[in-house]
Amino acid sequence: MKQPRSIVITGASSGIGEALAVLYAAPGVGLALTGRDSARLESVAQRCRAAGALVETKAIDVADRKAMADWLAQVDATSPVDLLIANAGMSAGTGDGGETEEQARRILAVNIDGVLNSIHPLLPAMRERRSGQIAIMASLAGFRGLPGAPAYCASKAMVRVYGEALRGDLAGEGVGVSVICPGFVKSRMTAVNRFPMPFLMETDAAARVIRRGLERNRARIAFPGPMMAAVWLLALLPPAWTDGLLRQAPRKT
What we know:
Low-confidence stretches: none
CATH superfamily: NAD(P)-binding Rossmann-like Domain
Keywords: Membrane, Oxidoreductase, Transmembrane, Transmembrane helix
Helix content: 40-55%
Radius of gyration: 18 Å
Mean pLDDT: 90
Oligomer: single chain
Organism: Azospirillum melinis
Number of helices: 10
Transmembrane segments: 221-241
Strand content: 5-15%
Structural class: alpha/beta
Distance between the termini: 40 Å
Largest sheet: 7 strands, parallel
InterPro entries: NAD(P)-bd_dom_sf, SDR_fam
Protein name: SDR family NAD(P)-dependent oxidoreductase
Order of helices and strands: EHEHEHEHHEHEHHEHH
CATH class: Alpha Beta
């Protein structure tokens, strides 16, 4: 979509979500932003208002199905949503002990249920209007399970495939769907990593890549190119060839 005027961004209080909110902020644009940290969210909102956008914020957990449905219904009734960016997500430390059950369940709840809770309250109205665009934040980690982050990789694989299938389902109904698959991008999530992150991108640069891809209604917005190629290769090679290498990779602590 070239010029969306009513935009919802989840996970907008930091990282890529914050960068996208600031990038889209302009006179005549309405932004509905949500995140779990109200102070950081309001700071982002102030930057967007300074750029001329009309901004509504809501501190909410995307895993709360009813709260998300109620809020999104109110947003769409006030200003029919042109673009939804389902960006909210989380990872967790693993270390030598691996992910705990609680970590895994929380990651899956936020990264999977949170996406569904963001999409489905808006989908009926978009279908009825025969217009709108949905952007789902997956990851290059969703192409190959990595020992250091099993729940994160699984969640991103699910939303990637879900988004690809949903794009086909909605193709004849005027609703676009794009799946976003970043590599390492500077954020609060990656700031805690104590290991090399190849091709680490600045957040603002990643946001610009995403916006260009959404303007062209690209099915998959995957970047950076070299990291994408490496992940594709890992996914294509037999696990017997790659398991040993991946087990030696550094993990979160």
